[in-house]
Amino acid sequence: MSLQLPDPLRVAVASLGGTITMTSDRSDGRGVVPSLTAADLLRSVPSLAHVEVESATLATVPGASLGLDDLFAVLTWARAVVDAGADGVVVVQGTDTIEETAYLLDLYWDRSAPLVVTGAMRSPQAPGADGPANLSAAVVTATSAGARDRGVLVVMADQVHAAARVRKTRSSGPDVFRSDSFGPLGHVDEGAVAFGGPAWRPSPLTTGAPDRPVLVPLLETFLGDDGRLLEIVDDAGCAGIVVAGFGVGHVSAGLAAVVGRVVERRPVVVATRTGAGTTYTSTYGFPGSESDLIARGAVLSGSLDPRKSRLLLTCLLGSGAGAGKIADEFRRRGARGVPA
């Protein structure tokens, strides 16, 4: 009687570029530019020998140069490889925009298999390069049964974050990604990932990719903001606007008056600029408070930060969503935690 061995786990790895792929011809390693392919990156991680890996290089650019078209191409590729049998997917890219790109992918990722985004804070030629360790941890997460049905995850420095919560909180350094409101979902230790709770995420958007380009600016309020900047942006023409407000969703009385006029023409979403926590709905009642803005017709973003709010509003408006749908999606996706 022969022993039947289980099929090896399969993971597909795609590279979009970023610091993890950047090299330099200089002896001091400065002046790095994107150059390595996905196959090059995999050769630097011998611990992946037990996993069946396929690779694809979809782009070779810094994270700041990625666009929506690149991400929808990633979605097409990722769905295809999962439907062909991959147990999970890893996308490698520049860290400058991971908190945004991962969330955009998460809005549309409609497979149970994990889609994991990772990168590096130090280039391959830098002392203490973190790319190989991050790629290894990402593959471990992508092939973990516990990662299924969690949507898109960001894995950096052995921490596993939800795409909807993670933020890059420092410009440089090896450990800069945080999910301050709720903490990471899990950690990678000794070649395995452990999660702190059951899988849960809002269901993906069913509207499909935006069928038309839309402009959604992001404005951060400031001390003395009287609304003139919002008026300028509104006059320039856009589909909607996100305002990063003070505290739990506050702006000045002057800006609130302008918001009330702008919402008659286009949606205005107000998020908190603090980097963590949620907007309120009814605690304060002064002009410019969260309840005043809601009464004027603004949508409060809940726990979605300004950057993720801009992406959600862009996708909704690009697919023709109306005011009711927009309010419902922000209420659902900006909920303060897992529904009881």
TrEMBL record:
It comes from Microlunatus antarcticus. CDD domains: L-asparaginase_II. Residues 216-328 form the Asparaginase/glutaminase C-terminal domain. Residues 10-195 form the L-asparaginase N-terminal domain. Signal peptide: none annotated. GO terms for biological process: asparagine metabolic process. Belongs to the asparaginase 1 family. This is L-asparaginase. Its EC number is 3.5.1.1. The active site is at residue 19. Pfam families: Asparaginase, Asparaginase_C. GO terms for molecular function: asparaginase activity. InterPro entries: AsnASE_II, Asp/glu_Ase-like_sf, Asparaginase/glutaminase-like, Asparaginase_C, L-asparaginase_C, L-asparaginase_N, L-asparaginase_N_sf. It is an enzyme of class 3 (hydrolase).
